[in-house]
Amino acid sequence: METRHAVVAGDARRLPLPDDAVELVVTSPPYPMVEMWDEAFGATASGARAALDDGDGEAAFAAMHDALDEAWAEVARVLVPGGVACVVVGDAARTLDRFRLYRNRDRVGAAFEALGFDPLPDVVWRKPANSAATFMGSGMLPPNAYVTLEHESVLVFRNGARRSFDPGAERRYEAAYFWEERNRWFSDVWTDVRGVAQGGAAGPRERTAAYPFAVPYRLVNMYSVYGDRVLDPFWGTGTTTLAAMTAARDSVGVERHPDLVAGFAGRVGEVTRLSREVTAGRLADHAEFVAGRDDHAYEMVNYDLPVRTKQERRIQLYEADSVQPVAGGYTVRHAPAAP
Ligand SMILES: C[S@@+](CC[C@H](N)C(=O)[O-])C[C@H]1O[C@@H](n2cnc3c(N)ncnc32)[C@H](O)[C@@H]1O
Question: What distance in angstroms lies between residue 28's CA and the mean position of ligand 1's atoms?
Fold first, then answer.
């Protein structure tokens, strides 16, 4: 199998894609009213900089979301009917004229609903509490100390009625996940995914507040099948592309900073090792899970392992064998993961 991955230096508000070009969107935009993104919104959101300078938080918040709305309208245009959009976003707490919370999750949800998307149950991703720097308000003195924001959300939206597949469609059944993975991945609270610290001036992953690989990898497996194409319009360091490559889906990423796009050349070399580790890990975890259990009545077709449901029988994992740079991106060759 071969997959194709386009990476474009461009603007999420003008996606270089025709209508109905992707089956899944997995992304994390710059978060309005989080200070590290003021520069980005200063360049893309008219009025945001002036509102911040005036200490008018509500106006800055509105201007920043107006800019994101243009990107969400593009997502609606390029996503196939029934395609899913997953948006990782957190609220922001900030003092301008006074301390308050800015509800990014609600505002992004409202934008997608206004575009005709159906909201689906979302996930709260509990990040590890990082440091006393997140300690907000007046210490130990009531009533003016504030709760620390230690979680973000994965908002999930579907573009109208769900997609339909031919009965028994091979690319869907091969892309199934294990029963115990389903129980973990489709929980509405993720406590088992490690976060990456926000802010800081060190490497590109800190500069973009990159999400951990496990976040897009899960989402790609949860909401797409083999043969699908995954879009990340706020691509950053390309974690979504790494996940799509590892999960053997096509992808396209759009990022405003050309240096981040160029920097991916150094990261893409990880893919063959990463995909071997991830697929071997999934099979080993499943073998460990079923060991000694007697409620797994079905045998897998491609692996010498029992499974609990008929839907898991034809699971086929793929490993990335080689990555080839091509004009505007990469192609990846995949081989079936050995039993
Ligand atoms: C939260 S970061 C994404 C991090 C990414 N998930 C990762 O793992 O590296 C948001 C990214 O969107 C980019 N960005 C901001 N505005 C944009 C726009 N209008 N079009 C394209 N990219 C944009 C920023 O430069 C930043 O890299």
Answer: 7
Is the pLDDT at 153 greater than 80, yes or no? yes
- Closest ligand 1 atom, residue 67 Cα: 19
CA-to-CA distance for 171 and 174, rounded, in angstroms? 5
For residue 27, give the ligand 1 atom closest to its CA: 6
Task: Please give the structure tokens belonging to residue 83.
Answer: 């395609």
Q: Residue 88 is encoded by which pair of tokens?
A: 């990782």
Nearest CA to ligand 1 atom 27: 236
Name which of 213, 224, 240, 246 is nearest 174 in CA terms: 224
Distance 233 CA to ligand 1 centre (A): 7
Distances (CA, A) of 267 to 7, 239, 241, 279, 323: 13, 9, 10, 19, 11
Q: How many helices (H) and strands (E) does the chain have?
A: 11, 16
- From the CA of 216, how far away is ligand 1's center (Å)? 14
Q: Is 263 a residue whose pLDDT tops 70?
A: yes
The total number of structural domains in the chain stands at: 1
Q: What is the pLDDT of residues 4-51, one digit of tens each?
A: 999 999 999 999 999 999 999 999 999 999 999 999 999 999 999 999
Taking 70 as the threshold, does the pLDDT of residue 151 lie above it? yes
The domain of 175 spans 2-336
Residue with tokens 């934008």: 111
Output the pLDDT for position 97.
87
Task: Quote the ligand 1 centre to 13 CA distance (angstroms).
Answer: 12
For the domain that residue 153 is a member of, what is the CATH number? 3.40.50.150
DSSP letter at 47 equals: T
Task: State the alpha helices, DSSP H only, in 209-250.
Answer: 214-223, 239-246
Q: Candidates 104, 208, 211, 270: which one to mutate for ligand 1, based on the most atoms within 8 Å of Cβ?
A: 208
